[in-house]
Amino acid sequence: MSLPPFLLEILVCPQCHAPLAESAGDEDRELRCTAESCGLVYPVRDGIPVLLVDEARRPS
């Protein structure tokens, strides 16, 4: 299930305030920060973005 486009337009990275892009992970959807200097990846659990820096991971 994809996030609604209007939601992706307003969501930003809590760390650096760059836009987020949706990407499909191995099991769940994720939101990836588009800033090269940040690049945090936030989980989407049950269709709800978890935009907590402590829950984010660095891309591998």
Automatic annotation (TrEMBL):
InterPro entries listed in its UniProt record: Trm112-like
TM spans (from-to): none
A Pfam cross-reference name: Trm112p
Source superkingdom: Bacteria
UniProt xrefs under HAMAP family: UPF0434
Family the entry assigns: Belongs to the UPF0434 family.
Name of the protein: UPF0434 protein FHR36_003173
